[in-house]
Amino acid sequence: MMVLPFLLLVVAALLATLGLRRASIGVWFLAMAGLIYMLSLRAGDFSNLTL
Amino acid sequence: MAAIARIISFLALFATCAVLLFVLYWQLVGGEVPGSLALMQRIALVGIGLGFLLNVRFGGSESHFGVVIVSAAVGLVIAARQMLAYAATSGAAAGPQMFEWHFYTWSLVGFFAAILLAGAMLFIEGQFVEGVRDTRPSGAAQASGWLFVLVTLAHVVSALLQCGFEACFDTSSGYELLRR
């Protein structure tokens, strides 16, 4: 789950490097949505504070 | 003015790559396994780098700065969440320090600086006159793009070894995938 936004951003960076600008921004949107979802899962959890 | 904006974007992209490489170095040499919030901050940092990469590759566009600002805002919230978590519980901060500040404090300052930089660069209106160009990129733009892809890929491998495809909320066990 945590790897998914990372993977999506690699795809977005690849698309940008290959010249596919709109697709890159679209994949970035998905990655940010995934990241915010991951954050929402931890928003109220103060029990696990590992770095 | 467009050339200045492009140079600043280049420098910001290289700074992002340098920070990503530094935290990877610290993780591998210092033996510091990142927690879930630290991983999320790295994802936000990669988002910032992507925004600057788009600027370098295609020229200045408002949406590219949107990518930077939204990524940095999400990263700032995550870094603040980590700081507040320490303040709300024991008050005793943990983790590595650099120049007497913890990494998440530097992270908070860095994300704020990225928002300020992107906001300030929006005032360079000359870069928007040319518009987005989908012509053949310069060698430097192409090289910086591949460098960014490789650095991000290294972080993906690290996160994969650590978390597999799990949510990765308990990172105390180190590299989960290597134990199997």
Explained architecture:
The complex is a heterodimer of chains A (51) and B (180). Chain A has 51 residues and is mainly α. Helix content of chain A is 75%, strand content 0%. Chain A has helices at residues 3-18, 21-42. In chain A, helix 1 (3-18) runs antiparallel to helix 2. Chain A is elongated and about 40 Å long. The two termini of chain A are 18 Å apart. By secondary structure, chain B is mainly α. Chain B has one domain (2-179): Bromodomain-like (Up-down Bundle), CATH 1.20.1550. In chain B, strands 1-2 form a two-stranded antiparallel ribbon. In chain B, strand 1 and strand 2 (101-102) form a beta hairpin. In chain B, helix 2 runs antiparallel to helix 3, helix 2 runs parallel beside helix 4 and helix 3 (62-88) runs antiparallel to helix 4. At the A-B interface, helix 1 and helix 2 of A face helix 2, helix 3 and helix 6 of B.
Count of structural domains of chain A:
1
- CATH fold field value of chain B: Bromodomain-like
Main β-sheet description of chain A: none
Helix fraction of chain B, binned, reads: over 70%
Rg estimate of chain B, integer Å? 18 Å
What's the oligomerization state? heterodimer
- In total, the number of domains of chain B comes to 1
User: What CATH architecture of chain B do you see?
Assistant: Up-down Bundle
Q: pLDDT average of chain B, as an integer?
A: 83
- Beta content of chain B comes to under 5%
Largest sheet: spatial strand order of chain B: 1-2
How would you classify the helix and strand content of chain A by structural class? Answer: mainly alpha
User: Which percent range fits the helix content of chain A?
Assistant: over 70%
Total helical segments of chain B: 7
Q: Count all strands of chain A and give the number.
A: 0
Beta-strand percent range of chain A: under 5%
Strand runs of chain B, count? 2
Which structural class is indicated by helix and strand composition of chain B?
mainly alpha
